[in-house]
Specification:
By secondary structure, the protein is α/β, with parallel strands linked by helices. The chain has helices at about 10-25, 35-45, 60-70, 85-95, 105-125, 160-170, 175-185, 195-205, and strands at about 5-10, 30, 50-55, 75-80, 100, 130-135, 140, 145-150, 150-155, 175, 215-220, 225.
């Protein structure tokens, strides 16, 4: 069994398609049709990932996502949205979703995104890796997915944390933009390398003493970025 996935979707036909797709690939799947039941089940069964519809009746997907993110245990979330509009994607990601899939979608796309999100989550919290790293005034808690700077919490989006975690676990290693896109966003991500640049800029504003003269997240000209642990 590859893992337990919870589907939170009120449209039975879509839920059945997703469930069949995942079960054929070896996942254990549970389906509920509303947010209240989803939160109850998450508290009792601890799934490995949630596929969450944005437009749920009653307690909607954003509210469910925000509630999940207030828990101590990190739970990966893929948001389903019915419209291919940037605002829906941004709102979902800012609420704490790790990724999104726009309806209609095919089985191959869904499986690719599920595998990518699970791979990143397990990579960040792997039992044979350190759960906490400290670099000067910066402290990264991988299990709790929390970052502290001079003892104060830093508010990072899920993708910002994933990007930082990958770089920080490999200090001094130079990552190309395409490699970062593949490992953090997934091989089927249809964006471009500017996505990486934007996230690095955001991380610098949040983590560097002087974002215009970074000392931790460094640019390697014509290649990509690296994390410097001690300079």
């Amino acid at each position: 069994m590859l893992g337990h996935i919870l589907i939170v979707e009120d449209e039975e036909a879509i839920a059945a398609f997703v469930q069949t797709t995942l079960e054929r690939d070896g996942f254990k799947v549970t389906w509920v049709g509303d947010g209240v039941r989803a939160l109850t089940l998450i508290g009792s069964s601890e799934p490995d990932l949630v596929i969450l519809d944005l437009a749920l009746p009653g307690l909607d997907g954003l509210q469910v996502c925000q509630t999940i993110r207030r828990r101590d245990h990190y739970l990966p979330i893929i948001m389903l949205t019915a419209r291919d509009e940037d605002v829906d994607k941004i709102v979902g990601l800012e609420a704490g979703a790790d990724d999104y899939v726009t309806k209609p979608f095919n089985a191959r796309e869904l499986l690719a995104r599920v595998r990518a999100v699970l791979r990143l989550a397990r990579h960040s919290a792997g039992p044979r890796r350190e759960n906490r790293l400290c670099f000067g005034t910066l402290e990264i808690n991988f299990t709790g997915r929390q970052v502290l700077k001079t003892g104060q919490p830093v508010d990072l989006t899920p993708k910002e944390f994933d990007l930082l975690a990958l770089l920080a676990r490999n200090p001094g290693r130079v990552f190309g933009r395409d490699t970062l896109l593949a490992q953090v966003w997934g091989y089927d991500f249809d964006g471009d390398s500017r996505t990486v640049d934007v996230h690095i800029q955001r991380l610098r504003r949040k983590l560097e003493d002087d974002p215009h003269d970074p000392q931790v997240l460094l640019t390697v000209h014509s290649i990509g970025y690296k994390f410097v642990a001690d300079r």
